[in-house]
Amino acid sequence: MPQEFVEIVRKKAVKFAGDAPRNYDVIFLDPFYKDTSHKFLMQNLENILEEDGIIAFFHGNNLDIEKILENTNLKVVDNRKFGQSYLTLIKN
Predict the structure, then answer these.
(1) pLDDT at position 74, please?
(2) I need a surface site. Which of 12, 38, 50, 85 has the fewest CB within 10 A?
(3) How far is residue 90's CA from residue 75's CA, in Å, rounded to a whole number?
(4) Is the pTM of this model over 0.70?
(5) Of 29, 27, 35, 33, nearest in space to 83 by CA
(6) Helix (H, G, I), strand (E, B), or coil: what is residue 55?
């Protein structure tokens, strides 16, 4: 893939989502699993996710993903378990 189509950003997610310079097709999230305060982040990510874009969200088993997606148009399209970790794919 040509380099101009790929951008890797390592910043505090909430701050970046609020200030993002453009929209994205794919967003990977791998936060600390014990942090369960992702509702505000998902609301901001919804605003920077391209139409038909996807969020790959890695999390622990103590997270109520449906509650985090309340008041957004984001929907879970797949959820996979890997040991104690989960990968949830979310679309708008």
Answers:
(1) 96
(2) 12
(3) 5
(4) yes
(5) 33
(6) strand
